[in-house]
Amino acid sequence: MAQTHFGYQTVDESEKARRVRGVFDSVASKYDIMNDVLSMGMHRAWKAYTVAVANVQPGQQVLDIAGGTGDLALAFARRAGKVGRVVLTDINEAMLRTGRDRLLDHGLVLPTAACDAERLPFASASFDLVSVAFGLRNMTHKDTALAEMNRVLKPGGRLLVLEFSTPVAALRKPYDWYSFKFMPLMGKLIAGDEQSYRYLAESIRMHPDQAALKALMQAAGFAHVDVHNLAAGIVALHVGIKC
Ligand SMILES: C[S@@+](CC[C@H](N)C(=O)[O-])C[C@H]1O[C@@H](n2cnc3c(N)ncnc32)[C@H](O)[C@@H]1O
Questions:
Q1: Ligand 1 pocket, 138 CB below 6 A?
Q2: What is the pLDDT of residues 74-123, one digit of tens each?
Q3: How far does the centroid of ligand 1 lie from the alpha carbon of residue 33, in Å?
Q4: 133 in ligand 1 pocket by Cβ < 6 Å?
């Protein structure tokens, strides 16, 4: 059995998906509040920037992968309008259920599918835009997932990957303290779950940096990839075009 990383641990590939599911089953009900606390609200600005870059037009077909509680899907749906279509997907039913409830609270009913990004149940060349926010680092085979995202995009379509990345050197020490001390402590106090937030910090460190992710996207078929660093590289938005 091939091995992979779950945070800093080495586990069988089949074990990783099960453990990632455990993390998001555990955090689903507290996910939104924890996002606000841990990012000090900044995740809203990162997502707003992503939505601005996406520039979704009325009538477009959009797929949000690992969409969780639906922040991006909600913003995209408002722009795609009634003639467009935004599909919210995630591998985790607890996260998806929370997202669907939130969308309903905003008066929106979107097509929703529980699916693995590595095996997307959509026809080739069917979307104008695909997004994945803070989801890619949890996937076992990132190359397979990126190739699937490429497959379902129309030629000329864009993939937006918003993900934690590698900050500038001056930030690394305080960022390490924040990640390995503050985040697990907040996880324990607010969500009663220190372990999941330790995994969050570790999974961020194990994720490819800006240049490595760009290379992965190019290998998956995105001929042109732009990298936008946000918060001094703590987060990066990669925009790939399927040519
Ligand atoms: C940190 S949450 C991000 C949720 C949302 N996109 C956001 O930005 O708030 C990561 C999500 O990735 C999902 N995920 C993990 N592995 C996945 C996979 N292989 N396919 C699809 N979704 C996956 C998790 O279930 C979880 O909902």
A1: yes
A2: 999 999 999 999 999 999 999 999 999 999 999 999 999 999 999 999 99
A3: 16
A4: yes
